[in-house]
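Entry 14. Structure prediction run on the chain below.
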Amino acid sequence: MFDCHEAWVYQLRWLGHPMDVVVGLKGRHTEGWDEAMRPLPPHARLVRIDQLRAANQSYDCIIAHNLTDLLDSKSLAAPRLFVVHGTLEGIALEQGSVTSPAELRHAVAEYLELIGAHAMAVSRLKGRSWGLEDDIVPLAADPADYLPHRGDLACGLRIANDIRRKARTLLWDFHQAAFAGLPVTLVGRNDEMPGVEPAQDWASLKQILSRHRFFVHTADPHLEDGYNMATLEAMAAGLPVLGNRHPTSPVVHGASGFLSDDPSELRACALRLLDDAELAARMGRAAQKTVADNFSPEQFQAGIRRAIESARRKWRARRQT
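Output returned:
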């Protein structure tokens, strides 16, 4: 497993298998596993890519999160699973890529076939963006992992990293128009935003979720899903969600949160929740049920096992040619 998206990797604890997590990768904000995001999963150990190459160890599957990971693992003889976490259009916009999404989509498909790798996406939107819709394994969150929701802070919450760089993807102008002047806590790694910091650790994040009244997620429907890992975790922790009307949002307007493309209307909904803790608690319970029904650990576990087996089958077929 290449170290990326600690919150996603942490879900693999539900498989119960030992795994090596490759750290010391270029372009990461930290050299090792980021404990501020999640604790290291049980049965996991941290290694560096040079150690793997020298050890010549056998693996059931290598899980990569980007093209660099796939290239770095080319000397390792094992099945490969490529996990798609973002849309090609969103990645190209945020990275200022000069390669068109269509060109990259074609190149990735050819390379995956060449090396006998399997690809899965964390959502239908993201899989479609890459032309990889055969295997979708949605994110998961378990309400049992979180503290009882108190909602004693009359304050909203948004969790996001690199907000300035992802401003268009996250509809940041819309967020500001809807919530400017309202008590909304921003949590995440955002060096260009004074006073905005990530949670200290997993325990601290759970405390933050338990105390806030509602959660905010806004996103451009062409670039990002109507939810992310932080959104599902907030719902699992008992927070209703406020956001724009997004076709992939798991939120039911008026039941588990409020959705509107009118910033004034969304602002009014936020004020209702700030003034009515019982309404927020009732909607938060509906949000928890949505996650339990549609984004469960059992569904994730079954999906990942299926994806790994597909990777192993494609690897065997390639070895036989």
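The first helix runs from residue 6 to 10.
Filed with the rest of this week's runs.
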